[in-house]
Design a protein that fits this description.
By secondary structure, this protein is of the alpha+beta class. It is built from eleven helices and 18 strands. It folds into three domains: 130 residues, Rossmann fold (3-Layer(aba) Sandwich); 66 residues, Dna Ligase, domain 1; 115 residues, D-amino Acid Aminotransferase, Chain A, domain 1, CATH 3.30.470.20. It is globular, with a radius of gyration of 22 Å.
Length: 385
């Protein structure tokens, strides 16, 4: 295959986000998995202060296997980059504004705020380029736990009881919260944050006050949610609405009874949890999880791919915990692992996600009328003007 026939894929890495390092590890794994015979790969690294530069795709990070030590390589191959609306080109503004590359599809391997919350997706939509994650609305809703829970509840899906409080609003006493939620254990979560950043497990008043202080450092809106005592399972979904498919189901087992799947346990002290895939579930529960995972994606307008997390209580009642619209792609991340159990290896998975991104753009975005003159022409033909 000639070089110009290859699909030009851009991987975005890093970003101004609390999950900057997780993004770098994920991006590194994704880049390594891309088939160079079919794709020409470009990498843009985004520094913690938001500077975009192009990096060598073969060496764009140092310490790639260590979330605690990984960082963007010291040497970029471009200056600061800029983009324009309705263009897939990237311009080097430190070197005369020249075009350094163009892309056909983007894999935004960026996590957290200013990354997977609809902001990055809005920028890519402005550029009119296909991208692998959910679109602007699905990404924003998927990130906001309060809004997502309300939509899921309205769709008739089972979510644990919750109350939303705001930093500048009335703060509820711990006793009243526990009574309203009928809870023995409470989880305090920033409404907009990923990878369990800022999440606390609470059982008493002192823990509650500390948890609120922590959560308000990440968001002005905080979700107080009834803790479901039971099993925690996850399933991966790929595809666009109407054609979505699900992976094997995995289970997260904390080795200490009062522990939970925190940021530290996900990426730093992973030895504190066991990730079991496939999970041992009854046929009825397994079937429900596969079915509800797709319903979650439909209710929240999430296409492309995602990971849907559930709790199962002692009576086998299934509760939706959340959707992650840009799950991690680290060596221990459940999204690629669950597809591996289902028989889809890493390179095949990445190829499918890139293909789905182009399909989504072609049916969802490309046919839309965006030109004002065309609107007027249609109106004239119909006799409206």
């Amino acid at each position: 295959m000639n070089e110009h026939e290859k699909v030009r894929v851009l991987v975005l890495a890093g970003a101004r986000s609390t999950e900057h390092e997780v993004s770098l590890v994920s991006a590194y794994n994704i880049v390594q998995a891309i088939n160079r015979d079919a794709y020409e790969v470009y990498v843009v690294g985004i520094s913690p202060d938001g500077i975009w530069k192009q990096y060598d795709a073969e060496h764009f990070v140092d310490n790639p296997g260590d979330v605690g030590a990984i960082k963007l390589a010291d040497q970029a191959i471009s200056g600061r980059l800029a983009m324009t609306q309705h263009s897939r080109a990237f311009y080097d503004i430190d070197n005369g504004g020249k075009v350094v590359f163009e892309c056909d599809v983007v894999f935004p391997a960026v996590l957290g705020n200013y990354a997977e919350d609809g902001t990055m997706q809005g920028l890519l939509r402005m550029m009119d380029v296909p991208f692998t994650t959910a679109d602007v609305l699905g990404s924003a809703v998927g990130m906001d736990k309060d809004v997502a829970y309300r939509l899921l509840r309205d769709a008739g899906l089972n979510v644990a009881r919750f109350i939303t409080v705001r930093k500048n609003g009335k703060q509820l006493a711990f006793k009243n919260v526990m009574q309203q939620l009928d809870a023995d254990v409470l989880f305090v979560k920033p409404s907009n944050a990923g990878s369990s950043v800022g999440v606390s497990r609470v059982t008493n008043d002192d823990e509650y006050m500390n948890a609120l202080d922590l959560a308000y450092q990440y968001d002005t809106k905080v979700v107080l949610q009834q803790g479901i005592i039971g099993r925690e399972v996850e399933i991966s979904v790929i595809g666009n609405i109407g054609t979505q498919t699900t992976s094997a189901i995995g289970e997260i087992i904390e080795k200490e009874a009062d522990d939970f799947y925190s940021y530290e346990n996900k990426y730093i002290h992973s030895d504190k949890v066991d990730l079991v895939a496939p999970a041992e579930l009854s046929e009825a529960v397994e079937s429900e999880i596969h079915r509800v995972a797709i319903q979650v994606c439909e209710a929240l307008e999430c296409e492309g791919f995602g990971r849907v997390d559930f709790f199962i209580d002692a009576d086998n009642n299934v509760y939706v915990n959340e959707i992650n619209t840009m799950p991690g792609f680290t060596s221990i991340s459940m999204f690629p692992r669950l597809w591996g159990v289902a028989g889809v290896d890493y390179p095949t998975l990445v190829d499918r996600l890139l293909t789905i991104a182009v399909e989504k753009h072609n049916y969802r975005v490309a046919p839309l009328i965006l030109d004002a003159q065309e609107v007027l022409a249609i109106a004239k033909r119909s006799g409206a003007v």
